[in-house]
Amino acid sequence: MSPIHSIILAGGIGTRLWPLSRKLYPKQFLRLRSRSLFQMAWERARLLSGKDGITVVANAVHRYLVKNQVEELGDTLGEDRLLLEPAGRNTLPAITWAMEGIRGSGETAVVFPSDHLLDASVVEEVRAAAGLARDRLVTFGVKPTRPHPGYGYIRPGEDLGGGYRAAGFREKPDEATAARLISEGCLWNSGIFLFSPWTFFTELGKYQPGIAAAFAGGKPDYAGLPSLSMDYGLLERSDRVAVVPLRAAWDDLGDFGALYSQEPHDSAGNAGEAEFIDAHGNYVHAEGKHVGVIGADDLVIVDTPDALLVCGRGETARVRDLVEWYDGRHDPITQYHVQVHRPWGSYTVLEEGQSYKIKRVSVSPGKRLSLQLHRHRSEHWIVVSGTAGIQLGEERFVLAPNESTFVRAGVRHRLGNPGQVRLEVIEVQSGDYLGEDDIVRFDDEYGRE
Scanning 4, 233, 285, 414, which has the fewest C-beta atoms within 10 Å of its C-beta? Predict the structure, then answer.
């Protein structure tokens, strides 16, 4: 059996899980459990392909989120296996780019979404379907549990031995149609695919010759590519598609209704940490806060430090509409959390006013920020824990806990962590402009000059 290469698609933004999911820190990187969904996808792929047999396709702005989360698992991801999309163009261009990297290898490729909850037993099911994938595009179908209008449906046809010919597709039908499709034996499309490079590029050249030609010379001009899903662009057109029923537990965690279904419930159907009095069927997520729900039914309550969502549990798909409304107003609430992750660690905005901002800056061991200056603000750093390596102009020194320094506007400076434990610093900014774009970088280890 030929080796199986794993492709992890990590480019989604999870708008229906706002305010937990933000565009710069989307749902696949959130630690909804002990690890993020992306990390769980990496672990599944590592079981199947080994750590050197994985390619990740991600949005360019998530580069260091991907690398940092892989490193947290004790692995590294080489630059040749991290493909960074400058713009989102859906799954078919992303898969094509990754497939180009193994085109002549003789490997079979499996494609895993990074934002789905999936049992690790899928690894054996993928291995078992490898024979069927030699000359077919294989997708894995999930037995539906309810009529869900947000999923795609696949109709199994003739038995191929280990799977079925895909006899038809239906994308996101209304609820009544979904119920009928389920009664006729249709499966949900899981978004997991398996195929050989030869089969993939043969069918791509036949049905999407423009995309095939665009990638033939390497990475194309992404802005000029059409936005096409794997399903619509290829699977629904090809006559060489097979569907394999998936036995492993699967959920796409697409909205808060899906999160609710995965959480333990009390006797009244409530999920989450709260005190419920005469309340039924509610979902609450509010870390670090006391929450009381009285006399309310079927609500979703999600509280974060800078945003609160309250909606009916049957309306969770409309959270995307709310995000689009905020985006139309150019409101950054859809972009950032109060905690913002950087390749060197993170910062959290604790308080801000007209001419000041207070942050907690956390720097990982051995990491340092860029050598930089600010034109409009000064900064006062106070070390809370760890050891801070400081550069101010030509001066270099070390600060211990409870020690501090002042960084005047216009002075080149750098903060680093030379120690073995995380560095925590309180940063007080003051000035006439406090935007994150008031940074002039002179030296940066992360390619951001």
Answer: 414
Question: Which CATH number covers residue 119?
Answer: 3.90.550.10
Where is 259: in which H helix or E strand?
Answer: helix 256-262
Contacts of 216 (CB under 8 A, 6+ apart): none
Asked if residue 417 and residue 277 are part of one domain, the reply reads: no
Same domain, 321 and 358: no
pLDDT-based confidence at 143, cuts 50/70/90?
very high
**C-alpha of 85 from chain center:** 13
Upper half-sphere CA count for residue 230 (Cβ side, 13 Å) = 24
Residue 136 exposure: Cα atoms within 13 Å on the Cβ side: 21
Same domain (yes/no): 63, 192: yes
| pLDDT for residue 1 is more than 70 | no
Parent domain of 263: 256-328
Q: How far is CA 40 from CA 31, 75, 95, 424, in A?
A: 10, 13, 20, 28
Give the tens place of pLDDT for each residue, 14-36.
Answer: 899 999 999 988 999 998 778 99
Whether 188 and 320 map to the same domain: the answer is no
Residue 273 and residue 131 share a domain? no
- Do residues 55 and 6 make contact, with C-beta atoms less than 8 angstroms apart? yes
pLDDT in tens, 322-377: 999 999 999 989 998 888 888 899 999 998 888 999 999 999 999 999 999 999 99
| C-beta pairs of 143-146 under 8 Å, 24+ apart in sequence | 143/187, 143/188, 143/245, 143/246, 144/178, 144/182, 144/186, 144/187, 144/188
* pTM listed for this prediction: 0.86
